[in-house]
């Protein structure tokens, strides 16, 4: 199998985060996991605005369904802490909001990231 199937680069570790997205997302409900997946990969797949819009859509759905972020393992907790430590700006806010199960704050951060991209700025 190709590396793009087994270990796609867009789901590999962020700078300073030596985990893959699946190690966090597989512990989550479908909506929560997808919100994380699209936030994780938005810089890597070539469609950052679309990925952030999808992350927001799934975050909104998870909030509507009352779903929380499962930190069922030390791995989940550690990955979220590393993402917070190795990201900045609104992306960092979004990861922190996920860590503390604050969908309002997460959606607000995603909205600001989307707005910045729509204005030609870096998210």
How would you describe what is shown here?
The mean pLDDT is 89. This protein has one domain. α3 (30-41) packs antiparallel against α4, α4 (48-64) packs antiparallel against α7 (103-118) and α5 runs antiparallel to α6 (89-99). It is built from seven helices and no strands. Helices cover 62% and strands 0% of the residues. The longest helix is centred in the middle third of the chain and has 17 residues, at 48-64.
Give the key terms.
123 residues; mainly alpha; 0% strand
Discrete helix count: 7
Provide the low-confidence segments as ranges.
Answer: none
Query: Main β-sheet, in a few words?
Result: none
Mean pLDDT value: 89
Shape: globular
Structural class: mainly alpha
Number of domains: 1
Tell me roughly what share of residues is in helical segments: 55-70%
Which H/E pattern describes the elements?
A: HHHHHHH
Strand content: under 5%
Amino-to-carboxy terminus distance: 33 Å
Count of distinct strands: 0
Compute the CA-based radius of gyration: 13 Å
